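Subject: for your reference before the review

Hello V.,

The reviewers asked for a structural picture of the protein, and I figured it would be easier to keep everything in one thread rather than splitting it across files. Below is the amino acid sequence we used in the manuscript, unchanged from the supplementary table.
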Amino acid sequence: MPTLTAVIGDSILDTVGDTPLVRLSRIGAGLRPQLLAKLEVFNPGGSIKDRVAIALIEAAERDGKLRPGGTIVEPTSGNTGTGLAIVARLKGYRVMAVMPDKVASEKGDLLRALGAEVVLCPTDVPPDSPRAYYNVADRLTAEIPGAFQPNQYQNPANPQAHYESTGPEIWEQTGGGVTHLVLGVGTGGTVTGTVRYLRERRPDLVVVGADPEGSIYSGGQANVHPYLVEGVGEDFWPSAFDPASVNRWITVSDRDAFLTTRRLAQTEGILAGPSGGMAVHAALQVGAEIGDPRAMVVVILPDGGRAYLSKVYSDAWMRQYGFLSRSGDLTVGDVLRRKREAGELPALVTVQPHYRVREAIALLHEHRVSQLPVVAAEDGSRIVGAIGERGLLKHAAADPGSLDGEIEVVMEPPFPAVSSEDPVREAVELLAGDQQALIVMSGDRAEGLLARADLLEALAS
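And here is what came back from the structure prediction:
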């Protein structure tokens, strides 16, 4: 009789890691590089923090810092606490998870179901407040006999766990083809350990940190303020984080993070947490900047979305915070998002003044669009002109040789720019005369292009 012992784990902990890597071919439609997502929801606790939880506890046992019957106290946004609770349940430890009150209620319920004790602390207090959840965790650790705080923010076992598992998995799953890594940064353990492994094999790996507005990483100490995305960004610099791991930062608003999270579920069937949506938003921006189809962009989705059903996936909650428009308050950004979710709009495609006209025509046909913004070669975010089928046709008819010239010679003035927050009715008024499209801006970044027909269709519906 064949034996099954080779495929039977000794415990649930044997299922941690080896999470799948999948293509995001729908939300990433129109991008030249491959866009791949590492789905950490497949860990037993539902997040990437399961990897860390095992490493933190085993390191403490080896060092004699955690003894039988001891208490584990950890400041966490929920996912690390869940991983610790699972490991502790099997090893006989008590767990106290100290959490900021902004976390989804489902996370606290899950921790309690696993036998952990949950202590909630206010979010809107300065880092040095005795009520801040880091400081509450420190106080409890000092007061409880036999208590140990793994302290994922400083513990070298945190990045080491990713050096030993997450990095090797990505390298093997991509066949060594990964060129860009995009991820949110919280404690810094994931990026530090994963990147250290990957750069030993590919020194030119480009790493992009997706960061919430209000985090110290991309905004600096002077711009630290509360935000709603959970588990990423910080208001201090953890020692577990090596800042040299990150080549560049992309700051993402709560709104963009939450809307991309919902779009990911609706287009790819992936129910991710908001920090994953934030990372995908940044990855789409990175992918739009890459012209090489051989490039491979990997984005890490650290957890699943079931713990956020009362928040990001709740229309009422989203409207309460102004992330979804109320009836009769349709914005240009809403139209852009709806068209993309329906697969009717590609990611924003741009050309530069030195491109040949024939190259631009090929892009128009490839992406099935009739207009393209022209961006400055030295600053890809600055729009300097526009081209469209109508204008190119006129030039080609007058001088066929212009097709071999540079775009700079035939380009027209830039499209009118509108904010993604502008009402549709006001934006339509800009499309007077021969104007056929608007460039939609989110802050100082171009988000997409909408034609006159798109806006009229939105009004009619």
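For the response letter, the relevant points are probably these. The two ends are 65 Å apart (CA to CA). The mean pLDDT is 89.

Happy to draft the paragraph if you're swamped.

O.
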